[in-house]
Amino acid sequence: MTLDRQRSIATTAEVSGFGLFGGIDCRLVFHPAEEGSGIAFRRVDLPHSRPVPATAEFVARVPRRTALSDGHSTIETVEHVMAALAGLCIDNCLVELDAPEAPIGDGSALPFVEALLVAGIVEQSAEVEAFRPASPFSVEGNGGQTIEANGDPEYRVRYSLDYGPGSPIPKQSACVAVRPETFLREIAGARTFVLASEIEGLRAMGYGRRATTENLLVFHDGGIEDNSLRWPDECARHKLLDAIGDLALCGGRLTGHFHATRSGHHLNHEMARRLTTFPNSSRQTLRRAA
Ligand SMILES: [Zn+2]
């Protein structure tokens, strides 16, 4: 696979469903976009809406998901869409939605990946400039969460998950070199999960009215409710998927090795933000593999 030229899709691709948090029906359409334009989301149900660039600058602070807003349009739960685009190394795409939140599908990035692959990926003429950590650095959360970054030539992400002793989700770690083949095989199908003990609180906040065990893995002390795992470490793989989607909010491709330990969306966004600012990061042209 040659990765040194910018990529978009050949034609439009559509994914329909409902949002996990708000439960509203949504039709999401991926459109081809000019080279150099990046990824942006536009709400077609709102008058006078403009495309909102998928960059850390436009991240709105909401719990448990990634939302973008320009003050007029808000687009929620974009992380699995972003992971699908980043995992397939699609640089330029306009994503239109007719609702506030992207469809959840089966809780993974697979519905988006499949639609994008059917549309077909096209190589454009402009070269890819990737963000790369200039030297090792890390970001830290208040509860000991960390993401460590270094400037390895290959883009790799490791996620280490630890909900502590007694959690129905055991301690686990997953790692992937982020390329279309590996993303598709190892990460794209990893699904969203929740602890049964959290559900009541989420429902009280009005979330997840239409969620079922078909789009949300529910863990309780006895195992998983009415479903089974695609991988023994599917939870770590899903957190890795979220991290790939969130790190793409730096606004371009990445190189370097990122090790996330117990990080969530907020810390992922912080890393994306830091990657766009000197002296943490440099830009480099990606070269075609021999
Ligand atoms: Zn997720």
From TrEMBL:
It holds the Pfam family LpxC. Belongs to the LpxC family. It catalyses: a UDP-3-O-[(3R)-3-hydroxyacyl]-N-acetyl-alpha-D-glucosamine + H2O = a UDP-3-O-[(3R)-3-hydroxyacyl]-alpha-D-glucosamine + acetate. The active site is at 265 (proton donor). This is UDP-3-O-acyl-N-acetylglucosamine deacetylase. InterPro entries: Ribosomal_Su5_D2-typ_SF (IPR020568), UDP-acyl_GlcNac_deAcase (IPR004463), UDP-acyl_GlcNac_deAcase_C (IPR011334), UDP-acyl_N-AcGlcN_deAcase_N (IPR015870). GO terms for cellular component: membrane. GO terms for molecular function: metal ion binding; UDP-3-O-acyl-N-acetylglucosamine deacetylase activity. GO terms for biological process: lipid A biosynthetic process. Its EC number is 3.5.1.108. It comes from the Bacteria. It comes from Caulifigura coniformis. Catalyzes the hydrolysis of UDP-3-O-myristoyl-N-acetylglucosamine to form UDP-3-O-myristoylglucosamine and acetate, the committed step in lipid A biosynthesis. Keywords: Hydrolase, Lipid A biosynthesis, Lipid biosynthesis, Lipid metabolism, Metal-binding, Zinc.
